[in-house]
Structures are given as C-alpha cells and as structure tokens.
Write the structure tokens for this entry.
Amino acid sequence: MKILALTNLYPPHYLGGYELICHMVLNELRARGHQVQILTSDHRNPDQGFVAKESGIERTLRIHGFYGHPWLKISELAVLEGYNNRILQRAIKEHTPDLVYVWNMGGLSKSMVFTLQRLGIPTVFYLSDH
C-alpha cells in the first residue's frame, strides 16, 4: 500500500512522544512492505541539528502560531493555508497514495483535512492529544 503520512513535526525535530510514535509506526509500516512518504513542516529545533535531505520525507509545510512561529493576520493566514494545501495536493499527485495517514495537526492548516475529503482520498487519523 502507498501511504502518505501528514504530520506537523517529524524526527529528528520533535517535542515529545507523539512524533516518536509516528516515526516508529511509519518505520514498522515500511518494514511490512508499505511505501511510506512523509509530508511534514519545515520547523527546525535548533538543538537537534541540521537535517540533510532524506529519502521519503518532505519538510515543506509551514507552521502557524506554534513552536515559536508567529500568529498571522487573517490575510497572511489565508496565504499560508493556500500554500499548505497546494503542497498537499502536489504530494498527492506525485505519490498517488492509497491512503493518507494524518498525525498531529497542531500548527498546520486544518483546511488540509477538507482538501483530503474533497479529493475522496481514504484518510485515517491517529489521535492521542488534545
């Protein structure tokens, strides 16, 4: 199965258990023969070092209002929402996933969930946070 994982943070840039669980689950899916592509934010934790380009991981989504990123004015937020949705749609077109696996959406554009719904792509959610 081709799986596109959508998450706000992904190791080595992480804050706690959520991102580490995501990493472990996606590695196990790969070990079972699934093709996994990860779409995550460009957020960097300065103390966790530089990350070279990694196969299967795209770090291009933008965060709003979390992890030290600024809260935007509504007009700027609309631009960011459009950008994140275009990135998601391009990833879907490029990787043609059978399933999108949504993880932590904190700071990401929630409108991407509606984009997935509109496109009719099977989507599952991992929920373990408020």
